[in-house]
């Protein structure tokens, strides 16, 4: 995914187990393109897709494990193909 999603997690119970999920929600009704080093409106957005949440592959892990490193969603795949079961 461009750009990569990376997070620092804090404030978790070190011994408790957590599952991290990523849910992406449209900000408005437009599609955008990255042009000349900035995002520009490029027309009306496609109809909204069914909701899907991406579970981080290290889930579940303890709070201690999540807080000791940067959490990256670098394997995330985005698609507007309804038949893609892994998007």
Automatic annotation (TrEMBL):
InterPro entries: p53-like_TF_DNA-bd_sf, T-box_DNA-bd, T-box_sf, TF_T-box, TF_T-box_CS. SUPFAM superfamilies: p53-like transcription factors (SSF49417). GO terms for biological process: cell fate specification; positive regulation of DNA-templated transcription. It comes from the Eukaryota. It holds the Pfam family T-box. One of its GO terms (cellular component) is nucleus. Keywords: DNA-binding, Nucleus, Transcription, Transcription regulation. GO terms for molecular function: DNA-binding transcription factor activity, RNA polymerase II-specific; RNA polymerase II cis-regulatory region sequence-specific DNA binding. Residues 1-87 form the T-box domain. It is found in: Nucleus. This is T-box domain-containing protein. The lineage of its organism: Eukaryota, Metazoa, Ecdysozoa, Arthropoda, Hexapoda.
